[in-house]
Design a protein that fits this description.
Strand 5 and strand 6 form a beta hairpin. The strands form 9 sheets. Strands 1, 2, 29, 30, 31, 32, 33, 34, 35 and 36 form a 10-stranded mixed β-sheet that branches. A 5-stranded mixed β-sheet has the order 3-40-39-38-37, with no helix packed on it. The protein is built from no helices and 43 strands.
Amino acid sequence: MKLHALIALFAIAGCGGNGTPSGGPDLAVSPDMTAPPSDMATPANADLTTLPDLKMVVPGTQLLSGDFTLQNLTTDGWAILQDNGTGDVTAQPLAGGKSTLIAQNPFSIQVSGKVVLVWHDGDGATEGTLTVWTAAGGVKDVSQSSPAGIGGVASDSGLIGYYDNLSDAGDTADLILDKPDHSAPKTLLKGVIQFQQDADGGALANDNCTPAVGFAGTRLLVTHCAGAVGDGGVRSATLTSYDAAGTGVDIATDVQPYVITDKAGTVVLAIDAAGAGSLLPPAGGKAIATGLADVSSANFTADGSALLYTDKSGRVARVSTKDGTIIVLQAKGADAIDSVSPDGKWLLFHTQFDNSTFLEDLLLTSATVAGNPTSLSKDPNAATGGMWGDSWTSDSTQSLYFSVGDPMSGVGALTAQPVAGGAAKKLNADSLAVYGAGGTKVVYNANFGNTNMNTAGQADLFVVDLAKNAAPALIATQAESAFFVTGDQKSVAYTYTLDPNRNGLYLAPLP
């Protein structure tokens, strides 16, 4: 079964944060609703793209000069940058000060909490040296031969999990539990299968032995297969949970290679080879719910009180993580859930998916009770804000989505829709990313262009409070398209790359 990328709220090995969702089954029927969905995407919507008198806010402060792409921000206030010329990965404190070189020649970068994992050198694509950096522990090379992108970080950033000693054939490696400063490595499993072979010696399609690594709080969760790679037959994977001391317990067998937990790490979703889901305690014990048939996409609510999922019949359901009670929210027609609001009361889902453009239609509905959804986009030309940032304002009162005009670039019209109803607001016709910045405030880029194909494109950067009638405030003109709001939602970090007089990393306060 092919699960949508959005299913991995916590970690799926080899996947980064906001991946492109994969397509589900071909649903030729409309959702089974007693009345057609209401349509909020009407011409009467407010349009913020033509508001005059854009007010320039306090200019950003340059923290570091150079030609960089901003990769992400750590939760303890560091910007992770990649030099567009040399490829070097560096960490720059947002409070100001000297930058730190983390690694050269990278091909996979993972930022989680206070920890940065960088795979580099090696074959330049699938395996190499794994370097870990934290502000407290510095730069540490923890493995000389690690499969790229397969690693996890505990919620408190105190532990990491990764693979080491990848075989020359690339088919087995050892599972390691460690601290980010590399002071306490423990080998938990040796010779873990990285892939299975088909009859011709190639990688087996739909291989459940592809390893996944993640954390539920401070417990390391891994899916793995036993046995030799070439001994024939299709093996099943086991989901094992390890405590900080390295003591493990198998909590599920015959599972697909996904590690899916709620944000707090209090519950785990395991999906077996037949597609049936079970809600389990991370440390093992009695299952909370079993027999969730044909799970095709899944999201936990932010507080962990419920799992929202779709199945192959097109249902959307809510499952209590306390007692396993199920509420059917939509009876038929759904392909996958795209996002759940921060307060757990609303969700976005789609019924159509275009496998060539990776775009979809988009509907908004309650995540707590059954009801008729609201159609935001009837044609498969939409993408949620979560594809490039956030799908909701921080207070969950507005959903954020794009009507994409150029599937190649992903640029489209950014719209905010109040979940309680009312007119939507079109923010810009040429946007690529949006982030919530507290309450109903959002930071977004607009007027996207790409005058240099060696960059990801440039755009103006704005901030606006959707609950107010004030015009958007301009933060930067034609900055690089990658930007991030700080964890306290008081500032935004961005870079310039095309102007030698101002190239570098900047931090601007949000009004």
